[in-house]
Write a structure and sequence with these properties.
The chain is built from two helices and seven strands. By secondary structure, it is α+β, with helices and mostly antiparallel strands. It has a single domain, classed as Roll (Thiol Ester Dehydrase, Chain A), CATH 3.10.129.10. The two termini are about 25 Å apart.
Length: about 150
């Protein structure tokens, strides 16, 4: 696996109108995510329009980055699921105009439940947040609803 977020060994992942990654969403963050065959990664520098308190990134944005990374991991792995539960622990706040590094990977894949985790680190490698998610696989019929978006 490469240490870079994006190189010839990774695949870019984006949906069209998603708030976090959607390339066609004029109000979205438009963050590309990359899959290396094992993990999904991205980097993001949030601007001041995404703050809660002055110079501190809103916690909902941090949460959305983790949820999105884990969902892209599932999708890129050929699985289909929806978020059932996410537990996030905030270790420190994310600062506006400073890079957030996001990495998601699987913990367990079972027929009825997929478990993944995600770490969000600042540029010095300090934990901003760690997340564990549970995802419910869905059927091929349900997939038709989502397929047009990817």
């Amino acid at each position: 696996m490469s240490n870079k977020i994006h190189d010839s060994s990774t695949r870019k992942l984006q949906a069209r109108y998603c708030f976090v990654c959607g390339s066609d969403n004029p109000r979205g963050l438009r963050i590309p995510f990359y899959y290396d065959g094992e993990r999904v990664k991205t980097e993001f520098v949030p601007g001041p329009e995404l703050c809660g308190f002055d110079d501190i990134v809103h916690g909902g944005i941090v949460f959305s980055l983790a949820d999105e990374a884990m969902m892209h991991l599932i999708r890129a792995s050929g699985l289909r699921a929806i978020t059932a539960e996410i537990t996030m622990r905030y270790h420190r706040y994310a600062k506006v105009n400073e890079k957030i590094n996001v990495t998601a990977e699987f913990e367990n894949i079972a027929e009825r439940l997929i478990n993944a985790k995600c770490a969000l680190l600042d540029n010095d490698g300090r934990k901003i947040a760690t997340t564990r998610g549970k995802f419910l696989p869905f059927s091929e019929d349900d997939e038709k609803i989502f397929k047009k978006q990817f």
